[in-house]
Amino acid sequence: MTTKTLLVKGSRGFVFAAFLAAATLCAQPPAPTNLQVLPKDIPRPQLMNTMRAFNQALGVQCDFCHVAREFAKDDKEEKVVARAMLKMVMNVRENGDKFAPGGRAEKVACWTCHRGEAHITLPEPPAQGPPRGAPPAKQ
User: Fold this and answer.
1) Which of 25, 20, 66 is nearest to 47 (CA)?
2) Could you tell me the CA-to-CA distances from 22 to 25, 28, 41, 114 in Å, in that order?
3) DSSP one-letter code for 98
4) Residue partners of 44: CB distance under 8 A and separation at least 6
5) CB distance 52 to 44 below 8 Å
6) What pLDDT digit, counting tens, does each position of 29-82 carry?
7) CB neighbour list of residue 72: distance below 8 Å, 6 or more residues apart
């Protein structure tokens, strides 16, 4: 193989790589719209990591809250609830030092309550005993 042949083949590879890079840049999804709780200028990788954290914490996929391929739509009640719960978590993190000292409130996340389940399952309350301060039962 001659030097000229190697140069031609090498340049073809370079052109192909450049074309592939350009096509990838053009194929980037549009910037997110309708962000109401998360920052409107959130970097795409951070947004995707946040959404993945929701997926893991609730054991769901994107279509649990989002209309397929139309992420800006608010047609699903689960999306409205998710926004309210996200505001709740943010509030706990911002104001939690008043009731959970030592940085514990900063650790609150969706997983804290959901534990991989879409809907929170609360434990049964303890059996009701005699009222506090009541005299002991006579035997």
Assistant:
1) 66
2) 5, 10, 24, 42
3) G
4) 31, 32
5) no
6) 778 899 999 999 999 999 999 999 999 999 999 999 999 989 999 999 999 999
7) 32, 33, 34
Nearest alpha carbon to residue 81 among 101, 65, 99: 65
Give the chain's length. 139
Judged on CB neighbours under 10 Å (0-12, 13-18, 19+), 22 is exposed
Partners of 70 in beta bridges: 67
* Radius of gyration, CA atoms only, the chain: 27
Q: Where do we find the tokens 């509030």?
A: 91
Token code pair at residue 47: 């947004």
Q: For 92-139, what is each residue's pLDDT tens digit?
A: 989 888 888 888 888 899 999 999 999 998 889 888 877 777 777 776
